[in-house]
Structure formats: C-alpha cells, structure tokens
Amino acid sequence: MMKHLVLALLLLTGRFGALDPKQKISFPRDHGSHDDARVEWWYVTGQIETASGRRLGYQLTFFRTGIADERKGARASAFAARDLFLAHFALTDPAAGTFRFAERMHRTGAGAATAREDRLDVVNEDWRLEEVGGRLVLFAGDGGNEVSLLLTPEKPPVLHGENGLSRKGSERDAVSRYVSFTRLHSEGWWTSGGKSEAVTGLSWFDHEWGSGAIGKETQGWDWFALHLLDGRDLMIYRMRGAGGNPTGFTSGTLVETDGRSTPLAARDVTIEETSRWTSARSGGTYPARWLLRVPRAGIEVEIVPLVKDQELVTEKSTRVTYWEGACDVTAPGGGAPLGRAYVEMTGYAGAGSLGAFP
Amino acid sequence: MTGLRPGFRSLLGPLVLRPAAKDRLRFLLTISGIAVGVATIAAIRLANASVLSSFSDTVDFVAGKAGVTILADGPGIPEETLQRLAWVRRVGATLAPAITETAAAGAADGEVVEVLGIDPLADTAAREYSFAEEKKEEKIFLEGEEGEGHARAANLSSIFERDSVLVTSVFAKRNSLRPGSPLHLVANGIERTFRVAGVLHPVGAARAASGSILFMDLAAAQEAFGKVGRLDRIDVVLPPGLSEDDRARFEEEIRASLPPGTTAGRPERRTETVDRLVRAFRVNLSALGLIALLVGMYFVYNTLSISVLRRRTDIGTVRALGASKRSVFTVFLAEGLALGVFGSAAGVGLGVALAKGALLLVGGTATELYIPSAHPSLHLDPLVLLFAFALGVATSVLSALAPALEAARVDPAATMRHGSVEAVRRRRTRPLALTGVVLLALAFALALPGPVRGLPLFGFLSVFLIVSGVSLLAPAAVTFAAARLDGPALRLFGVEARLARANLTGSLSRTSVAVAALTMALAMMVSVAVMVGSFRTTVAIWVSQTLASDLFLSAASGKSGASFGRIPDEAIAVVRDVDGVDEVDPFLAFGATRDGVPFTIGSGLFAFIAKHGNLPLVDGRDTRKVFTEALGKDEAMISEPYAEKFRVKTGDFVELPTDKGPARVRVAGIYTDYSNDRGTVTLDRAHFQRLWPLTGAVTVAVKLKDGVSPEEGARRVSAALQGRYALRVRTNATLRRLVLRIFDRTFAVTYALEAVALAVAVLGVLNTLTALVLERRREIGLLRVLGASAARVKRAVQYEAAAIGGLGVVMGVLSGGAMSLVLVHVINRQSFGWTIAMHAPWGFLAAALGLVLLATLAAASRPAGLAASTDVAAALKEE
Predict the structure, then answer these.
(1) Mean pLDDT score of chain B, rounded to an integer?
(2) In B108-189, which ranges are E strands?
(3) Does B89 touch chain A (CB under 8 A)?
(4) Is the peptide bond before A28 cis (omega within 30 degrees of 0)?
(5) Residue of A84, A112, A125 with shortest CB distance to B141
(6) Do residue B504 and residue B407 come from a single domain?
(7) Architecture field, domain A26-68+79-353
(8) pLDDT tens for residues B210-269?
(9) What is the residue range of B537's domain?
C-alpha cells in the first residue's frame, strides 16, 4: 500500500512518465519535442544526386535526452540541464569512397540547441530540422561540406506498430512511440569546398520517443529503411540478444505507394547476412551485405552498402559506436537495381557500442 | 724592468688579503651590511613576484586554452550574450561560459575557495580536467537505466547531478574529502551542502588558486550564488592555426557582438589588473629596500676608506717599488667587488629565507585586499635573485670607486707625513656641505610635481635626495658640533671629552660617514614611523566617525577576514524585523574598470547617511545637506581616492558601465574613505538598482533602538538568522578593532624593515669605532705611557660614540621629519589618494631614539674595551 502511494507520488511529481497507449498522436504537435519522454530523436537519412549524377548519402540525427527528472520551472537557471541535445551528421560519397561524420552536444540554456514542443523545430548550433508549411527544411554542415534541403512528404506520416507504439523488449515499459515520413522528395543544395550544386533525391524521416528501457536481453539492433523503385517503402528493425541472435522483437512496416501501411511481424521477415566487414577503428565486425525477404509482400532483395566503412565512433556526444550507411537495393545476386536503402547497426563493437532505442 | 713592477696579483696579498684576514670582524660587518640590503630587496621582490605569479597562474589555469576571454565591467555578462556569439561556433570556435565565485568551506570563516561554475559539455574544449580515480569509459547519455554491478566512475558530467561538486586532490586532502563526502559551502550568507562527486588531479584548471578551487555545474552555480541570468566569463577557444592577424580580427568581431559593459581580450589582461592593484604597495616596499641598500653602500665606502687610510704606508711602499696607480686602483676596486660578491651572495641566501616571511606579509596583505583565496607559494625566480645580486655588486663597486681613486692618488713620498689626508678632507667639508644644501633644495622642488603613471616617482626621488643631501652635510655637522663641545662640555667631562672631540674632527672622514649612516637609518625610521602613525591615527578617527552604526553584518568572510559574497535581501528583511533593530543600511558594490584601472561602484541608503551625517566630506561641507541633495537629483558621491586617481571634482560627470551603455552621473561631492584605495563611486541604492540588476548587500549596517546594547542586539540578530543564514555579525567595537588589526598587519613589513635598517646603522657605528680604535693603537699606547688609565681611554671612546649617536639622532629626526612630510603628502597621496593628517607618534619616537642611543653606546663597549686593553708595548713597537 505504502509502496503504491510512493509510486503514485513519484508519478505525480516526476517529469518522465510511461507512454499512454490510449493517447492519440496528433500532428503537427507530435512532430515536436515530448518533455515527459526521457529519450527522443529525429532522424533523417537520404540519398541525393547532383545534376551530373554524382550520388551522396546523408544522415542527420537530433537526439534529446532528459537528464533531470524535474518538472519545468523547478529550477531558476535557464542553464539547468534538463536535457542534453546531441546531433550527428554523416555524409557518404561513394564516388570518392569516403564517409565523414560530425557530432555535437549541448545542454539546455547554452543557446546552442533547442527542440520546440508545439511543432517540429530542432536546432543544434547551425544544424536545423524544421517543419514549414507541411514540408521539412534541413540544414547541416561539417567543415565546408553542407547540405541544405527542402523535404516534401509524398505520403502521409506513418505510425509504426499499434498506434505508433513500437515494442523493443519484453519489459512492460520497453516501448516507444515511432512515427515516420517514409518518402520525402528532396531538393536543395550540396556545398563542398565553396562550390554549390543542386541536388535531388529521396529522404526518410523517423521520430521516436519514450522513457523506457530497451530490454535487458538486448545487445544491439539492425534497422533497415528501403525506398523501392516500385514506390513502396519498407522499414524493418530486429533486436539482437546474446551471440547476435534475434530476441524475437523484430518488427516492420510496409508502406504502399498510396501511403497505406501494413505492420510486419517477425515471422513475415527473413534477413540473411552474406558478407562481413571489420572496422579497423573500433575492431567491431559488422554484416556488410544482406538478403532480405518479405514473402508476404513479394519482396526479395539484396542490400549492398555503397561504402564499406560508414561507422560512427561518437566519442564527443552519445559515445555509441554504430554503423549507419547508404546502401543499394538490387535483385539477389547483384541483379537489377530495385531501390535504395539506409541501414543502421548497433552493438557490434563491444559493450560501448549500444545506445537506447534504434 | 717592467717585469719586476708589482702587478695587480702581487698587490692583492699585501693590500687586501692580509688586512682582511687581520680585520675579520670589520669585513664580516661590511659583508653583512651589503647582505642585509640585498636580502631586503630580494625578499620583497621574490614575495611580490610569487604573489603575482600565483595569481597569474590562476588566471592562466582558469583561462586554459581560451584565446579570448569575455568579462563584464559590471555585475556580470547577460546570458543572452551567448546567443549573440553563436556565430563563432560556425568558424570552429567553442564557447565556454562560466560563473566564478568565492565561497568559504565548512563555515562562514572556513577555508576560502574559488568556485567555477562550468558547462561540462563545452568546458573540456577550454580547460583540462583529469580525474584522480580510475576513469572508465562509459555511456551515460542515451541510457535509460544505469548499468548494474559496478559503480559509476566520476567524470565531468557527474556535476549534472544535483548539488554535486568536483574538488581538487589538494583540497580533498586538506579537508579529508572523498567521493561521496558532504561539503558545506557558505556563499552569499547561505550555507549549502554539496556532495563531492569526484576528485581532480592537480592538472589544468584544478591547479588554479593553488588547488583551492572547486567545480560545479553552471546552472547550479547561477542558482547558488544568485546569478541567474548572468555569466561571469565566457572563454572563447579559437580554431587552431589562426595567424596573429586573424586572431586580432576574430577578437574584434567578437567585441562587435558584445553588449555594452562587456569586454573581450586576451585572458592575461586580468593579471595586468592585479599587477596594477599591488603595484603601489610593491613600489613602496622596494623603496624601503633601496634605503637599506643605501646604508649598505655606506658600509662599503666606510670599510674601504678606512682600508685605504690604514694602508697608506703600504700603498706608498708598493708604489715606491714600482706599482702603477692603475694597479693600486684596480686592487681596491677588486676589494669592493669581492665585498659586493660575498655580501650579495649572502644577501641572496638571506633574502630567500626572508622572502618566506615577507610572503606571508605581502601575500597576506595583497590577498586580503584583492584575492581572498590565493595561497601563494614561494617561487624562486632566478631573474629576481640575479637582479638583487647584481644590484648588490654594482652598488659595492660604485661605493668602492672613491676610496680606490684615493688609494691610487697616494703620493709615495707623502706617506710618511701624518694627517695630510685628513687635512684634505677638512678642506672638502665646505663644498660637500654646499652640494648637500643644493640637493636638499632639489628635494623640495621634486616634492611638488604630480605622479608619473600613477606612481610617485618624483616623491621617491625627493626622499633619496633628502637622504643624500643630509649625509653630505654630515662632515660639516660633525665639525660644527665638535666646535660647540669646547667650553662647558669639556669642563664637565674632563680630558676624555677633549680626546673624544679631537678624535671626532681628527678622523672626520670616518666619523662623518658613521654619523651619516646612522642619520639615514634613523631618518628612514622616523619618517616611516611618522607616516604610519599619522595614517593610523587618521584612520582611527575616520573609523570612529563613520562607523556610526551599532552592528555590522557581512557574508562569508573566510579565515583571512576579507569579505566576499552578498547577503540576500531576504536575510536583510529578517534583520530589519528583529526586535530592537531601528534601521538597516545595506551596502552593495561591485568592481568595475575605467580605462583599464579598477575601481568600485557602490551603493548605500543616502537617506541613512543624510540622517546620521556620518561620512565626512573632503571639502568640509555639511554631509547631511550634500547627501540629501544628491538623493533628490540622482547624483553620485565619490571617494577621495577615486577623485585623486581619476582627477574628478565635484560637479564633474562620471560614466558608469551598464548593460544599456554608459550611464552619466554628476558628482555631488567627495567623501573621505580609507577603506579602499581603488576608489569608489557611490550611488543611492534605488538609483543603483535601476542601473544594475543586483540585489542584496555586501555589508549591512544596523542601528539599534535606544536602550539596546550592541551585545544584546548582536545576540538577537544572530538568533533570528540562526539556521537560515550564515552571516558574520560584528559589533561596532569589534569591527573597529578588526580594521586597526588589518591596518597594523599591512604595515608590519615596514616595521620589520625599519628594525633591520636600524640594526645595520648601529653595527655601522660599531664598525667605525672599531676601525678608529685599531688605527689609533699607537696614539692610545702613547697616551697610556703618558699616564692615562685604561678606564679613561675607554671613556674617551664611549664619549665619541655618544657624540656620533647624538649627532645621528638629531640629524635623523630633522631629515626624518622632512621625509615624513614627503611620504604623507606626496608619496602616500599619489599612491593611494588618501589625505592624511600628521600625527607624530611621540612616545614611540622617543623610545626608539633612546634605544638607538643606548644601542650605540652598547656597541661602543667593544671597541672601548679594545682600546682599554691595548698592549702598550706592542702598540709602541709599531712606531
């Protein structure tokens, strides 16, 4: 009895609460920041091309992690570190065979990073992702390599799982809210070494938030986001446990050309690793080629990274070592091109390589 | 033939080494004279350099890798400034904002520590931190839950946890702290308990303030020290590889982004400010050291002159044997050099030992006045030691010049004739005296001009001219006094007095040197005693006038007694409501700079001062009236040091830095203030708070209702504050005592120096008399043969000592009086801006002068004994 009372009090006074499954998601509010969620991120990945056909992959991630379990206004100082704002930006240039990334970390109040609550507008120094009139405006740069893009959704936002509730483990609170714009027409500019070129392409936006854990048994995960040439989009994540075996929490969403989405369960998906790559930097060995099948949807594809080394060792921010890279999607055996993809893999480079949510 | 001429080397033995071996005592005295001068200079410079270097180290360690530091010329930098500066990140620079505070550890009077409130995420770019415990790589940011089974190792982000601080290993050891230990800190009158989250190695920022520094989160520091919305500094780490031009341009653009009242510059400029603060103090002490060295110079001159006189026969002989004038000159110069080298070497050694003591004094004074948390440690700067050594050697060689020249001029044929040199000396008495008079006139003229770059250089020059002028008058004074000894004195003291008189004038060159040395030392003592005494009396009168309230409250004050931090408004309200409290007057102030020169902006309740009239004005106008008018017109009152330093008069306007640009305020009047030599611009509290967003008070004066005793009032106020605020409550009497105690401690250095100089002068008398007795062995022997008793011979020497001592005292008092005028009205005024009324400490002076006379007589007992015990037969055999 006493214990319940204390728990109830904690729930009343604390900032972070468990997600309410009945809570309806509504936009544009829910594209914004959720103060009662301990962890939240906004993820944009995409592949763009210059007029001359030069291809680039980019990833821009804004993290917010709540570190003070206090309600707003509990502290007088504007610097009171309620949240840390972290951000990663990576650029893959397959023609040059290069992959470079930058990271940032700031606290509340330092004037360097913010996340609005009423709509999508996340800022970390001069990196920014903002919703303007139903489109997303993105800017990021690293040492003279900048992308400035206008992203137009070609399909409505997708709520993954049940009403956007995505389960990551067996624990009661191992769930998060997960919504996406799976297909964003992208146009804008890529600037490198002082020279700007117009670019166009396709991007994918993920937004995920929650306060829970990722499941005790979890050691890492793999995440696939595919833009198929036939107009369909496919998202699959697979949580891995000890020895790299799936924990059973594998899930996905198939988005049809018209925007309708179908949840996929573990039994709907098979993933076969056909090659491996070892990082000289972290010593981690990652899968480097996959055969992905979703028989229900008639999908059987091979996924091939554009550049082998697309590993991020984020010592200055999240301290997570992970692989996040642009890939080609082809028919199995190196056949005809079927689409493009971004793949994320965590937990391959030792204990220090694990984050919270995918 | 030239090969047989005695050269420099062959002369060393007979002319220097042998006499030195024979007169070990005299040479030792000479060496110690130089040593004392050199030691004093070395000690003061070492102590000063150590204080400054400990401060500049702290500045460097805190600034870390910052290329530009932004500071505010007021109560802090508005935190929005960070937004204005966001652009610097785009070009690869990092902004490290910080709060700086001073707190007392444990209790209101505990160890003083600097507190640096930092953003752990940005700070590593600017400052280095190294953890004393084993540091494990870990991920903390994206984890929902902590890892199990192993405790979390400390890192910089540990201070994100509430009430966490990082301490240095030095501080942890001193206060027996470990990770997890509670740490009580008193700041701004409030005691808070923090938890030690980690211990830092003495690396980087942890070396600042000699380890008396702790680190907490920026937000926690803003809240704990009442600085919400403000920052104390922003360190900008520039992108690597900037050229000097680019750096300057960068700094210029940063400056352009700053709000008014905020400045950007290289971090080192803070050291320059402190250097300026302690400069007047240091220069004054160094001047005293120079006087000590001057006394040492007289020693060398004295010793060598006597050597030359005593060895005239030897010199004549070696010259007759073919030694050149030049060789003789070189030999005596070499003797001066040798004396200088030995004396200076000993002086440097002694200086290092003295510096430890001087450091406590200079360090104590400087830190109490300016940097409450500094624990300066002695830093043996080889350049300082070399300088003191070179100065000692140079002055010795310089003082040896005249005797060496005299030695070279010795006519071999004339060495058999006695008294010829003294005859020359006597003839020179008049021109010397004339030069002395000219120097004194010059000294008067030099006391008139103003300071040079804030330093009273002409004043010091004037003091030195007085010293040199008076010493040039010494031979004339001795002759004059000896002439007066005829008649009554002779009848009274008999034949011994006649002997003494004859000796005084007969050995004029030596006796006048002894008189001059004693005069100088006494002049220095008298003048400094008069200056310090006048100052002390003036301050004591001022304190009793201005400390009109019954109780005084201050925030944490640390062990040293220097107060810092602010008393919150809530605490002032509590005090106001205490039964028996009639009125409270909160004093609120912060430091600012004008053209890089620091001053204070303060505020009080003008109505309170207008009612009690307790702050005397420089021009003698009615305090009540002037403050009432200033209150009505929003005008400022300035302190006398401010008026002096910045040449501001009543009716002028002063510009005060605020967030919204400079505020122009008219000066309504100038009040006397001996509490702060930086100078203060004081506004009424309401006016002040309209200009700056500051609350609370640095000190609060409390007037009690009639019939409530200060002790009873203090008890009630303390009881009301108990458990809520940690303030110091002092009664009027306690504070007065404290002020004078701090005053005395500040001037303790000067007392020590005076004692040293006096000891040197008394030794000088001993030195001279010994030389005279030794030289007169033949005469004494003759006297004894002629029937003079040992007692009479002894008494003759004592009379001579008394005459030298008496002359020294009279001349010392006269010249000391003149010097004290210069010290009080020129040097002190120009250094600190204080008007001091002359108050001679008669009792002290009488006692000191009497003691000197007695010491001179006591010093004479040895040479007198020597004279009495002269072996008559041996003395006569020398003939």
Answers:
(1) 79
(2) 111-118, 164-168, 182-187
(3) yes
(4) yes
(5) A84
(6) no
(7) Beta Barrel (2.40)
(8) 788 899 999 999 988 888 888 999 999 988 888 889 888 888 999 998 888 788 888 766
(9) 475-548+733-879
